Amino acid sequence: MSLIVGALGTLSFIFGVIAENKKPASGTPITGKDVVICKYPADPTVALGYLSFGFLVASTLAGGLSLFYPYKGKSIPWPALFQSTSFFVFFLIALGSTGLAATMLLWPTITEHKHLVSNVHYNLETSCPTAKTGLLGGGAFLALDSALFWLVSLMLADNAREDYFDDVKGADGVTTDYDDADAVIKGSA
Q1: Distance between CA atoms of 179 and 22, rounded to whole angstroms?
Q2: What is the pLDDT of residues 29-42, one digit of tens each?
Q3: Nearest 5°: phi and psi at 84?
Q4: Nearest to 82 by CA among 74, 92, 72, 73
């Protein structure tokens, strides 16, 4: 699962950076009778922006599902995962960075799409704008960060699973390595 999350996050990053680099600075205004028609060069910015967002969503779904997927036929309750403070913190950071990345990828992509579709302006002073520069690139880096935070959360979930199963074994009367170490320390004192 970690390879899938990492690969999808990397693809989101790559498509976002290419979309940022291919975005035109502005369109060409063509003045007509009481209107300005903006002609934009053909570029893949909108398609690449949506692809980047799509791979971000896929990476997030794979990351989120992998956290709660029962490995080796063993599942643990969700509250047991969230008892680990470090897991909880990184889970929230992964969610937050995903939301911010999605916003920074979608906002300029939708704006650019709107500029391409609504290219007739009645303001004769228009300069044929494009979406704000830098947002797609920033969103791409946040998408990569998001995938990395999902990977860290996955590692911390593995630790929380091990702790949970160690506690369950200890509660069943089976001693764990920690119980043996405590007995040795108490016996020597």
Answers
A1: 60
A2: 888 888 888 888 88
A3: -80, 115
A4: 92
Total residues found in the chain within this entry:
189
DSSP state string for 20-47: HHH--S--EEEE-SS-EEEE----SHHH
Residue of higher predicted confidence among 6 and 132: 6
- Tokens 């979608």, residue located: 106
Rounded to whole angstroms, the Cα distance separating 144 from 158 reads: 21
Handedness of CA 6, 8, 14, 20 (dihedral sign): negative
Closest C-alpha among 188, 11, 120 to residue 3? 11
For residue 73, how many other CB atoms are within 10 A of its CB?
5
| Separation between Cα atoms, residue 38 and residue 71, nearest integer Å | 55
pLDDT in tens, 142-174: 999 999 999 999 999 888 888 777 766 655 454
Tokens matching residue 67: 């956290």
Q: 120 in helix, strand or coil?
A: strand
Q: Domain map of the chain by residue range?
A: 2-156
User: Quick check: helix, strand or coil at residue 124?
Assistant: coil
